[in-house]
Each structure stands twice: as structure tokens, then as C-alpha cells.
Design goal:
Bound molecules: adenosine-5'-triphosphate, magnesium ion
Helix content of chain B: 25-40%
Number of helices of chain A: 14
Largest interface: A-B, 75 and 82 residues
Distance between the termini of chain B: 71 Å
CATH topology of the largest domain in chain B: Rossmann fold
Strand content of chain A: 15-25%
Shape of chain B: elongated
Number of strands of chain A: 25
Oligomer: heterodimer
Largest sheet of chain B: 10 strands, mixed
CATH class of the largest domain in chain A: Alpha Beta
Shape of chain A: globular
Number of domains of chain A: 4
CATH architecture of the largest domain in chain B: 3-Layer(aba) Sandwich
């Protein structure tokens, strides 16, 4: 018999329930409020009382209301049909809900119960299998969606029966397994998994090394991220976190994109809803929505479900990773999730840590980031979850608990600068402050030198160095005045501006410039470094600025033109002419 | 809100604090309204049979034997066409001497719109002010505040924007505004012959501050009625949200909650987001647009109130006095409309985005040149040109007293580019320069 309880206290969405039996931490329960079931999660237990956070508004709730406990934690429902869906933070299908306004307790099924899927068996009778083994597959949009032995199944099993090619519904049995004790267990296409627990049905999780192309120059060409890597994007409001994440979701080289809209604006999700079904995936030519799943807990949706939303998203990502796919998970903004934890912790009158956040915030964040990664599955296939979260630091000050904790957990740091955003230098990533720890991984260096170019990493270091020197020259010019420094300083500064304007800055709203394939990035970086290696002769400093502006202007016209198009080549020739005007031709040394 | 017969009257209060009182009662719903000696109050906490009520006008003089009556519902508003042209207090009670509004009773602060049922905003709101239309174009369904120091004429600008934006209804939520400001709004709307389109919920400095907490929800509930049920485009004006947030901090402080940054409650982000997210474009054509005011202290936008607001709203309009031209301008650096890309270059001319960005970049160059002067350095020819450009740009486009069409704004900017810069210096796409950049006007005489 399941445990029941009665409401004894209500403080906003924290509800105290007197229980009549055993309850467990993080158990899900339902409050029976005037015929509507309100979902809630146990977050603390004390003697006969369970403290539950309700995933809904508690307006009108009264004491003595009945509560039913389910005996399980918050679970994701995993099976074909997740792709292209719009879920709320608890994985309810938003499209199935009635009416314009969200109704309390309108909990819809995440999958399509009646839909027929074309199934193909992958396992044979007699095969030894374990949790995560592939039993069969169905084609979901275009992804071969593996039907796996449920992750919760302990030990090893023998396949007794597996369905033949045919059309099945998700709850139809597609295989029968026998465990070591000879017990037969039927398996269908759906399984459940508690979202707060990582899915670990893989053989090995090595350090990631495989370059993940994003089409964003300041990332790929300066602070590259890897498949299975982690990164975070802190920045004051309005500096471009969301635009950057949307660009990543459109362009990154991944099989599946999961976007967790976590406590941010509803209109931003609407942008995805309305644009992605129309936009083409540059790699497959299919619509972007076909590879995208959205988990939306926007800022006006119940706060308690915010924390759940990122875990739901991560669990779905891990599920698809187990099929041998490359997943990119984006969460905007992880600060809102931390704030939700803070609200609840304050309501429970826990001893607060820095800025009133819960004491264990750093541990929560690093455990979450640790779920990303590149894995070798038990069948030696590979899969990955790359995770990039945004952080919204209070007052734009990076010395705050969420940023600091995330910095310890994530390997790439894409710092957005207010100054760059103010002067419309988009994307406003500060290329010098930002870093990618993967540049220090020998396995990554080896990988890119084989797959991209032998001097890719060298060029990155060169470009960064030029930026740093340019910045120093700029400061000197500011201190000593235009004519108080050697002309050379002006050159150093303007050469760094070329990198800034041509490589770093990228117009996310221009058809051509928005995404730069790696070949083109390589080409442009070589060109830019070539100009940087050229010495120019100037009579006075006043010549420097207009001259480099011309160079930058032609470079930018190149960025706006289709790669290697007639126009592109025309601008390239123009560039050559401008450079020859003032280049000092070096006598070749013997 | 009256008591009806048969309601149970409680007369024993256990505890009284500055803002709340607690009593033993049963069968009470969370967030339910009550009357404590005729003062309106709301349930904020229930522990066993101990119910805590927040009394909006404060607990001064409340005795332990006060009469408490629970009303059985959360705060509500009667909605109907009769709201038009009327003035109400924070509780939704008429303050203009007119009759009570008859209509459907709805609880304020109701449920959110399902995000998949929203439509992407796409209707441009033209205000005639270039600092807005050219640089920070507004769209219906958007939420955006003015960030302004208290001495800026934000209420005037807001009233002007409201009247020029062709909205079906304008709903004013006044929080802690002075009586003079209240009368100002009333006069402007009356003089513009717009009073039938206006609905106001006002809490002035003469009313208790905690009452303010009801104002935005009242205004937005009325807005939802007209937008969702009557398919109208509704513009909601909320002034001053800083005073609203101050009231939130008063309450949380009196309830002994742990404050986070700047003594604001830890839930400030959620509290503000719940209001601002009511801005929406409905699929049936109705929309709610929110224009708010967040006053700053000494221009500090890192303070928790503007900071959290910035993270919620779709941009902000920054008012600043430009001492070079002696006028208030919409600062192009700190201002931003996040939704502008939904309309600029699409509903407006294709050169709009590049022209806008270029002008702002050149304006930034002028700011750098100014720093050079401050540091005692000579200016280059380019520096001098940017400074002249900046002054003219400020006068002809940034000042809030501009009232022109968007095409004229774009042409004016081209005129300034041609007057002061070469094409290489502006760096605009060659095809746009060919198509629009060679316009003939009195400024288009290249130097
Ligand atoms: N790459 C870009 N190209 C052009 N404009 C950009 C770019 N990135 C950002 N912007 C501009 O900056 C605005 C704000 O960007 P965005 O919404 O991504 O900020 P944010 O950091 O997510 O802010 P918040 O923390 O408030 O959510 C955009 O609406 C757009 O006008
Ligand atoms: Mg954002």
C-alpha cells in the first residue's frame, strides 16, 4: 500500500505533509487539490512530516488536503518520440495541453502512445545482454533510435524472444529477456529513469578529444570545444548569451540538440518554435526542428520545476548518447536554476552560504557538469553529451557563487564582455579572457592536427598573442598619446583589430556570415595571419588607421560573400592590391 | 469586496507583527483574502491551524480582538468593457467617483500562457522617436523598461510613447507615484482625447506602500481580459517598478526572510519575471506590451533591481542628458531592444540594421575621442570628424523630442555618414551603399 499524507502547512510552494507510512527523499507525490492532482517532490523529511516542493502554484490549497506518495523519484519517460517535442520542465508535452493558458495539474504524456513505429531487431535470440544493450531500432525522424535493455535492469540477461521487423506501438512488447534466475521479463520501447541519477551504461569515459565544430569563429578558431566537452557562457544581461546559444543550436555539428530554457523568457523559446521548423540543418538539409528537443521552464512557469528541467534535459541527453549519438545540450540559464534552489533553501530556513545560496551549490553544479562526456559504449560504439550552460551573474560581477562554482566544473569559459557588447562587437566573447582547457590536451592537439590542420593549435596561440599585444599597444597609445608612441605601436594595435573584426566578430543575423565552416575558418585565419606577418611602411601614425580600416573593410566584405564566389575572389584581389601598396617586400635570405 | 452573511467571524488574534497578524482558523486557502477590522489582508502562510495574514495597509492599531473575516478567494478584479476610462486604487476599487464596475470576477495573478500557444511578436510599434524606432525598435508583445535617474522626464516620455503607439487600450499601473504625476497622466490622456482607451490602477505616495504589490497584477489582469478575450492590442505602463521592488523588500524583511543582494528578497527575479512575462502576442491578434520605468540611483545598473529587470525584460531604454546638446537622449550604448531584429530590415528597409549599427559604432569612436581630449591628447582628423558626427547624430536622431518616420531616420543617418565619412570608414556592405547610401539630400555633399 502506498503512503498517504495530509497537508499541515503551506509556505508559498513549500508544503508540509504529515505522512502515515514510509517516504523517501526526492520521492514524487501528488496533492489532491479540489479534484486536481498537483505534483510535488519530497525535499526534506523530519519525524512524521515530509517537506515537499510543489511544482505548481499553491493558491487556494488548504490544510488537511490528501497527498498520495508514488514510491518513486522524479523520472523521465524514455522512448521514441522525444525528438522535436516541446516539453515542460517535468517532461509533459506542451503541445498536448488544452487551451491558451497552462492549467494546474494538466500532465500530458511525453510520448505518442498510439503511434506505430517501424521496428527492426538488432539482437538475436540467445544473445547475452545487459542494461543499455541495443535490442532493436526504430527510425525517429531520421535518427536510428535504439530500443535498449532498460537501464534499471540489474545483471545480465539472455534474449529469449525479439520481435521481427514490423510496426509497433511504444507499449507493445518487442523482446523477452531471461535473467540469471530463469525469470522472463518483457520489454517494450519505453523505460523510465530517475532524472537526478546519471545513466552509466557505458564501458569507459575517456578524456574528450574530438573537435566539435560550431561554425562560430571565436569558438572554433580561438577557444575550441570538443565532443563531450563542457563549457559555460557567463555575461551580464544583454551581452549575447542567448543569441550565442541559439547560434550553437543551429550550427553545431551534432546529431541532436537539446535546449533547456531554464527560467528565461518565453519569447525566446517561441523564437525557436517558430523558426526551427523552417530553418535547414546545414549538414543534413533537413529542418532544424527534426534534430531538436526543447525543455521549457520559462521564468513564469513554476519555479520548483526549474531545477527538474535541467535534470530532465540531461537524462534525455544521456539516453540518446547510449544510442551512439552526438548530443549537444544547452541550458539557458543555469543561474535561474541556482536561484530556484536558493528560494527553496531559504524557505526551509537552511543555513545560507555565500549570497544566500545553499551551501552545497558548488557540489550540485559540478555533479551536473560531470554527467556530460564522451563515452565508449559496451558495444564499442561512441556517443557524447556536450554541455554548454549560460550563467547570469548578479550585477555582471563574475565573483559570485554560481560563476565561481561553474568555473571549477566547466572546461571552456566563454566570457561575454559588457564593453564589447556596448560597442556592438558581436559575439561579445572576450577572446583573451576566455579559454578552452582542451587546448592543453595532447590527445586533442593530435586529433585536430590530423583532421583540421597541423598548425591549427599553433595559429590559435599566435592569434591570441597578437590580440594581447594589440591590447597592450592600445593601452600605451592611450597613456602616451597617438604621437607619443612609435608608429609601430599603431601597427601592432591595428593588426590585432584585424583579428577582432575579421575573425572574432561575426554577424549572427547575416545569412552567410552567421556560420563559418571549418575549411573557411582555416582559410581566413591563414589570410589574417599572413597580413599580420607582413611589415608595412608608414610615414606617420595618421596613415595607419585609415589604411587598416580599408583592409578590414575588404576582409569584412569577404566574410559577407559566399566562400570562393566571384565576389569573394574580387574582394580578395582587392585586398592583395591594398596590401601591396604599403607592404615592405622582404629580400629573401639565402 | 464585501462580507456576506453566514461568514464566520474570528475575533482572537494570536500574534501581531509590523506587517502581519496570525490567528487560529481552519479551512482557509493559501493566498486567500481576508478583512481584519475592515482592512484588506491576504494569507501568506499556514502552519497547522495557525494562519498568517499580511495586512496591506499595515497593522498599526490592530487589536487582538479585531474582527477577521475570510473572503474565500484570492484578490480579484471585475472585468468588462466598463473598465475603460476608469481610475482605480490598488484593490481595484473605483477612485474616480464613478459606479462599481460590473463584470466577470477573475483572480489576479492568474496562470501563464502555454509557451507553445504564443505567437512570435512581429508588429512594429512606431513612436516617432529615433532613439527608439531606429536604434531600439519596439514590437507588440514586448516588455521593456525605461532605466532613468529620478530626475529624468521618464513619465513624460512614457506617456508620449503610449499615445503614439496605436494601442486599443492603455493601462496604467502607478506605484508610489506622486499625486502630481497621477494628475499629469490624467491630464495628458484627457487632452489627447484618449481617456476612453485608458484604465488606471494607482497607488500614490499617499497610500500605504505594501498595497502597491497588487497594482501590476490588477493592471495585467485587466490587460489579459482585453487582449485574450477581446483580441485587442493592450499597452501596459508600469511606473515605478523600483518602488514596487522596494515594497517587496519591506514585506520580506518584516517576515524575517534572508535577504540577498542589496537587501532584496532572493525571489526578486521570479517575482518580477512573473509580471513581465505577462507580455505576450496571442495567436488571435491580441497582445500585451509592457513599458515600465525602473528608476536608478546614480545611474547604477548593477543594483539588484535594474540588474534583475535587465535579465527579464527584452531590453531597456536608457535616458541620459547629453550635455553637448543640452537635451535628454536615448543612450545608444546602454539601450537595447531585444526584439528589434524581428522587424528591422524585415518590416523596415533592408539597410536599417547596418545603418543603425554603423551609426552607433561611430558614436562610440567619438566617445573614445572624447577620452583622448580628457587625457590631454591631440585629436586626429578622424577623431574630429567622429565628434562632429556624434553631436549632429545626437541632435538629429537621439534626442527624445524627435518625431519622424523611420525611413527619414535611416536617410538622415546616411546623410550624416556621407557628410563625415568615407565608405571604407563606415564599412557598410557595398550593395547597400549602392542602393541606399547615395541618396540625394542637403547633407549628401561628400567632403
Ligand atoms: N552575435 C550577435 N550579432 C548581433 N547582435 C547580437 C549578437 N549577440 C547579441 N546581439 C544583440 O544583443 C541582444 C541581447 O542578446 P541576448 O539576448 O543573447 O543577451 P543575453 O546575454 O542572453 O541576455 P540575458 O541575460 O538578459 O538573457 C540581442 O537581442 C541582439 O540585439
Ligand atoms: Mg538570454
Amino acid at each position: 500500500m502506498s503512503t498517504k499524507g495530509k497537508v499541515k502547512g503551506i509556505i508559498a510552494n513549500l508544503v508540509i505533509v504529515e505522512v502515515d507510512g514510509p517516504v523517501s527523499q526526492n520521492e514524487i507525490c501528488y496533492i489532491n487539490h479540489r479534484g486536481v492532482k498537483l505534483m510535488a517532490e519530497v525535499i526534506r523529511i523530519g519525524s512524521n512530516n515530509a517537506y515537499i516542493q510543489v511544482f505548481e502554484s499553491t493558491r487556494g490549497l488548504k490544510t488537511e488536503t490528501e497527498v498520495e506518495f508514488t514510491g518513486h523519484m522524479l523520472e523521465a519517460t524514455l522512448g521514441p518520440g522525444i525528438l522535436s517535442k516541446n516539453f515542460d520542465g517535468l517532461q509533459h508535452d506542451l503541445d498536448k495541453m488544452e487551451g491558451i493558458f497552462l492549467q494546474k495539474g494538466d500532465y500530458t504524456h511525453p510520448l505518442e502512445v498510439e503511434k506505430l513505429w517501424a521496428f527492426k531487431p538488432l539482437a538475436n535470440v540467445g544473445d547475452k545482454v545487459e542494461a543499455g544493450s541495443w535490442l532493436g531500432e526504430v527510425i525517429e525522424n531520421w535518427i536510428p533510435h535504439k530500443i535498449m535493455v532498460p537501464f534499471t535492469f540489474p545483471g545480465s540477461f539472455t534474449v529469449k524472444e525479439v520481435s521481427s521487423v514490423g510496426e509497433y506501438k511504444i507499449y507493445d512488447t518487442i523482446a523477452t529477456l531471461e535473467n540469471v534466475n530463469g525469470k522472463l521479463i518483457e520489454v517494450n520501447m519505453v523505460q523510465k529513469w530517475p532524472v537526478k541519477i546519471p545513466i552509466r551504461t557505458y564501458k569507459e569515459k575517456p578524456r574528450p578529444f574530438d573537435f566539435l565544430e560550431t561554425g562560430i569563429r571565436v569558438i572554433d578558431s580561438l577557444n575550441p570545444i570538443v565532443e563531450g566537452g563542457t563549457g559555460f557562457i557567463p555575461g551580464p544581461f544583454g551581452t549575447g548569451k542567448t543569441v550565442l546559444q541559439h547560434a550553437l543550436s543551429k550550427q553545431a555539428e551534432a546529431d541532436m540538440i537539446i535546449i533547456a530554457a531554464c527560467g528565461e523568457r518565453a519569447n525566446e523559446v517561441v523564437e525557436i518554435f517558430s523558426e526551427f521548423p523552417e530553418l535547414d540543418d546545414p549538414r543534413t538539409g533537413r529542418k532544424l526542428m527534426e534534430r531538436t528537443t526543447i525543455i521549457a521552464n520559462t521564468s513564469n512557469m513554476p519555479v520548483a520545476a526549474r531545477e527538474a528541467s535541467v535534470y530532465t534535459a540531461m537524462t534525455i541527453a544521456e539516453y540518446y548518447r547510449s544510442m551512439g549519438l552526438k548530443i549537444l545540450l544547452l541550458a539557458d540559464s543555469t543561474s535561474r536554476w541556482a536561484q530556484a534552489l536558493r528560494e527553496m533553501s531559504n524557505r526551509m530556513e537552511e543555513l545560507p552560504g555565500p549570497d544566500a545560496f545553499p551551501m552545497d551549490l558548488p557540489a550540485i553544479i559540478s555533479n551536473f557538469y560531470a554527467r556530460a562526456g564522451f563515452v565508449y559504449l559496451n558495444n564499442n560504439e561512441t556517443g557524447s553529451v556536450t554541455f554548454i550552460g549560460t550563467v547570469s551573474p548578479a550585477g555582471g560581477n563574475l565573483k559570485e557563487p554560481v560563476t565561481e562554482a561553474t568555473k571549477k566544473a566547466a572546461r571552456c569559459f566563454y566570457s561575454l564582455s559588457q564593453n564589447r557588447a556596448d560597442s556592438k562587437r558581436y559575439p561579445a566573447i572576450d577572446a583573451v579572457d576566455s579559454y578552452s582547457k582542451y587546448l592543453e590536451y595532447p590527445e586533442f592537439i593530435e586529433f585536430v592536427s590530423k583532421t583540421v590542420s597541423p598548425n591549427w593549435v599553433d595559429n590559435i596561440l599566435k592569434a591570441k598573442n597578437i590580440l594581447i599585444r594589440g591590447h597592450e599597444a592600445y593601452e600605451q597609445i592611450n597613456i602616451l598619446g597617438d604621437d607619443g608612441v612609435p608608429i609601430e605601436y599603431h601597427q601592432v594595435f591595428w593588426k590585432s583589430e584585424i583579428i577582432d573584426f575579421v575573425i572574432l566578430q561575426q554577424d549572427a543575423f547575416d545569412k552567410v556570415d552567421a556560420s563559418t565552416p571549418i575549411e573557411r575558418q582555416k582559410y581566413m585565419m591563414d589570410k589574417v595571419l599572413e597580413v599580420n606577418n607582413t611589415s608595412f611602411k608608414f610615414e606617420n601614425f595618421e596613415e595607419v588607421n585609415p589604411y587598416f580600416k580599408r583592409i578590414i573593410n575588404v576582409f569584412r566584405q569577404m566574410n559577407y560573400s559566399e566562400f570562393q564566389s566571384e565576389q569573394f575572389i574580387k574582394f580578395e584581389n582587392e585586398l592583395k592590391e591594398i596590401i601591396e601598396e604599403k607592404a615592405v617586400v622582404e629580400v629573401e635570405q639565402i | 469586496m464585501e462580507t456576506t452573511a453566514f461568514q464566520k467571524i474570528y475575533t482572537r488574534i494570536d500574534q501581531i507583527t509590523k506587517a502581519t497578524c496570525s490567528l487560529r482558523a481552519s479551512g482557509i486557502g493559501n493566498e486567500e483574502m481576508a478583512l481584519v477590522n475592515d482592512r484588506l489582508a491576504q494569507v501568506v502562510k499556514i502552519e497547522g491551524d495557525l494562519v498568517t495574514l499580511q495586512i496591506f495597509s499595515g497593522t498599526e492599531g490592530i487589536p487582538t480582538n479585531a474582527e477577521v473575516v475570510f473572503l474565500g478567494h484570492a484578490p480579484q478584479l471585475a472585468v468588462s468593457e466598463e473598465l475603460s476610462g476608469r481610475f482605480f486604487n490598488a484593490y481595484g476599487q473605483a477612485i474616480d467617483g464613478g459606479p462599481e464596475v460590473e463584470g466577470k470576477l477573475v483572480e489576479i495573478g492568474g496562470p501563464s500562457v502555454n509557451p507553445v500557444r504564443r505567437k512570435q511578436p512581429s508588429e512594429l510599434i512606431a513612436t516617432g522617436i529615433a532613439g527608439i524606432d531606429l536604434n531600439n525598435t519596439l514590437v507588440t508583445g514586448q516588455k521593456i523598461p525605461f532605466f532613468a535617474d529620478p530626475d529624468q522626464p521618464y513619465n513624460q516620455v512614457m506617456a508620449m510613447v503610449a499615445l503614439r503607439a496605436k494601442a486599443d487600450k492603455i493601462i496604467l499601473g502607478g506605484m508610489g507615484i506622486t499625486n502630481d504625476d497621477y494628475l499629469f497622466f490624467k491630464n495628458v490622456f484627457e487632452n489627447a482625447g484618449a481617456i476612453d482607451r485608458i484604465i488606471s490602477f494607482v497607488n500614490t505616495t499617499e497610500n500605504p506602500p505594501v498595497e502597491r504589490l497588487l497594482v501590476p497584477d490588477m493592471a495585467l489582469t485587466a490587460a489579459e481580459y482585453f487582449a485574450a478575450e477581446k483580441n485587442q492590442s493592450v499597452l501596459v505602463l508600469l511606473t515605478d517598478m523600483t518602488l514596487y521592488a522596494d515594497a517587496l523588500s519591506i514585506v520580506s524583511n518584516r517576515m524575517d526572510q534572508i535577504p540577498s543582494k542589496d537587501s532584496m528578497p532572493g525571489s526578486l527575479y521570479s517575482d518580477l519575471a512573473k509580471l513581465y512575462e505577462k507580455a505576450v502576442q496571442f495567436p488571435n491578434g491580441g497582445s500585451i506590451t509592457i513599458i515600465a520605468v525602473t528608476t536608478l540611483s546614480g545611474g547604477d545598473i548593477t543594483h539588484a533591481i535594474p540588474d534583475n529587470t535587465g535579465y527579464i525584460t527584452e531590453g531597456q531604454l536608457f535616458l541620459r542628458k547629453d550635455t553637448d546638446i543640452g537635451k535628454v537622449i536615448i543612450d545608444p550604448f546602454r539601450s537595447l531592444s531585444r526584439l528589434k531584429q524581428l522587424v528591422i530590415g524585415k518590416k523596415t528597409r533592408e539597410d536599417h540594421p547596418q545603418v543603425m549599427n554603423t551609426a552607433i559604432r561611430l558614436y562610440a569612436d567619438a566617445a573614445n575621442a572624447k577620452t583622448k581630449i580628457e587625457n590631454g591628447f591631440d585629436l586626429t582628423d578622424y577623431d574630429k570628424r567622429t565628434m562632429s558626427f556624434a553631436k549632429e547624430y545626437s541632435e538629429k536622431l537621439l534626442a527624445i523630442d524627435i518625431n519622424i518616420e523611420i525611413d527619414t531616420m535611416i536617410d538622415t543617418a546616411w546623410g550624416l555618414f556621407n557628410k563625415y565619412f568615407s565608405h571604407a570608414e563606415t564599412g557598410i556592405k557595398a550593395e547597400l551603399v549602392d542602393k541606399y547610401g547615395k541618396i540625394e539630400n542637403e547633407l549628401n555633399k561628400t567632403i
